[in-house]
Amino acid sequence: MKILFVSSEVTPFAKSGGLGDAVSSLATALSRAGHDVRILLPRYYFISKNTLRRINGLLEIETAREHYHAFLYTTAMPNSQVKIYFLDCEPLYGRNGIYGYSSAQEFPDNPARFSVLSKAAFAACRSLGWIPDIMHANDWPTSLVPVYLNTTEKNTEFSDTAGVLTIHNLGYQGIYSRDHFPELGLGWEYFYGAGFEYYGNVNFLKAGIVSAECITTVSPTYAREIQTPNGGFGLDGLLRQRSRDLVGILNGIDVDIWNPAADPYIPAHYSYKDMSGKAACKAALQKELGLPSDPNVPVIGMVTRLVEQKGISEVFGRTYGCMRKILETIHVQVAVLGSGDAWAEEAIMNYSAQYPQFKGVVGYNERLAHLIEAGADFFLMPSRYEPCGLNQMYSLVYGTLPIVHRTGGIADTVVNYNQELGEGTGFMFDDLTPQAVYDTVGWAMWAWYNKLQHIQNMRVRAMQQDFSWARSADEYVRLYEHAISLRKAR
Question: pTM of the prediction?
Answer without folding.
Answer: 0.90
